[in-house]
Amino acid sequence: MSPQTSSSIPELSYRVRRLIYQASYTGMKETDLLLGYFAKVHLPHLGDADLTNFENLLEAGDQQIYAWVMGSSQLPDEYDTPVFHLIKKFNKEQ
After folding, report:
1. Digits of tens for pLDDT over the chain (94 positions)?
2. Domain boundaries in the chain?
């Protein structure tokens, strides 16, 4: 988690709220539940780089994300980030 200046807090707060919303409404119920809950719990505590990784992951599409998290499809290198591993760990703990 990186230090934030007072001017970046409102922007980050808006970004986190937007990502939580996007993660909660991906289009596939399974990923909505997994990513939405993950986002509510973890995104407020992540730094900018991790939030960017999460944004990039969302762009891959819900069916792909679900397959990667469940291990039924190989994860491409560009999505092999600490955030993805945090999601996978979060899924196992649920």
Report:
1. 444 444 445 555 899 999 999 999 998 999 999 999 999 999 999 999 999 999 999 999 999 999 999 999 999 999 999 999 999 999 999 8
2. 29-93
41 class by beta-carbon count within 10 Å (0-12 exposed, 13-18 middle, 19+ buried): exposed
Q: Token digits for 27?
A: 């289009």
Backbone angles phi, psi at 28, to 5 degrees: -120, 125
CA separation, residue 37 to residues 20, 58, 64 (Å):
8, 14, 18
Q: How far apart are CA 68 and CA 76, in angstroms?
A: 9
